[in-house]
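$ ./design --mode recover --in tokens.txt
reading tokens...
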């Protein structure tokens, strides 16, 4: 589990194709690896990767074909900058939101504008993910926890404050770029709860979660 608060910007030192899989060597920048062990998880541009080799200034991780198909790793090249975050511990401040590192798909940057000192982006995700994206809800972009400021159809707007831009790769994004996105965990689970009853065979338990129940419980406004 992660929070979406980026700890370092690293870069890809090596990208090795292994059939449909990829093995990455990541230079970790200022990320503190002193407490990282083999088998630990590091979110790399929002993707939860397992450390299979460890160096003093980086790590090696394998990416399966399934993950390659859902993320931007299929076209990443040596030298690409990536956002890095180690998995949380029980004492970690949850400064962002709950991030699993299981990317849902790729969104396209449609527009970039300066608004004062901030950068404003419009992004277009796959249409099937649009239903999980809500005004003032949380979303993860290349591993960064962000707040959705506006939604139009399945497209959405983000405002990146200077500190976040300076500490992540988002400062370099431009129209036409692709980013890894992970929608809010709660939205996905709520959808599953609400659809569970209609999908069950005869005699199976049915969900009691309804729109009315969610509204009474404060999940809907």
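writing sequence...
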């Amino acid at each position: 589990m992660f929070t979406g608060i980026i700890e370092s910007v690293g870069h890809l030192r090596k990208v090795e194709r292994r059939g449909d899989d990829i093995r990455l060597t990541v230079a970790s920048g200022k990320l503190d690896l002193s407490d990282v062990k083999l088998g630990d998880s590091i979110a790399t541009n929002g993707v939860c990767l397992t450390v299979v080799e460890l160096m003093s200034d980086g790590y090696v991780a394998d990416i399966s074909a399934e993950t390659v198909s859902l993320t931007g790793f299929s076209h990443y090249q040596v030298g690409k900058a990536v956002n890095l975050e180690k998995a949380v511990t029980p004492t970690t401040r949850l400064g962002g939101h709950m991030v699993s590192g299981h990317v849902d798909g790729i969104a396209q940057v449609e527009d970039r504008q300066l608004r004062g000192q901030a950068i404003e982006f419009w992004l277009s995700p796959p249409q099937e993910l649009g239903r999980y994206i809500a005004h003032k809800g949380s979303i993860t972009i290349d591993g960064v926890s962000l707040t959705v400021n506006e939604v139009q159809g399945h497209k959405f707007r983000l405002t990146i404050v200077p500190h976040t831009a300076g500490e992540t790769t988002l400062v370099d994004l431009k129209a036409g770029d692709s980013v890894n996105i992970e929608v809010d965990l709660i939205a996905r689970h709520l959808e599953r709860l609400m659809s569970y009853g209609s999908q069950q065979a005869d005699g199976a338990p049915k969900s009691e979660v309804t729109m009315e129940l969610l509204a009474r419980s404060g999940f809907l406004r």
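exit 0
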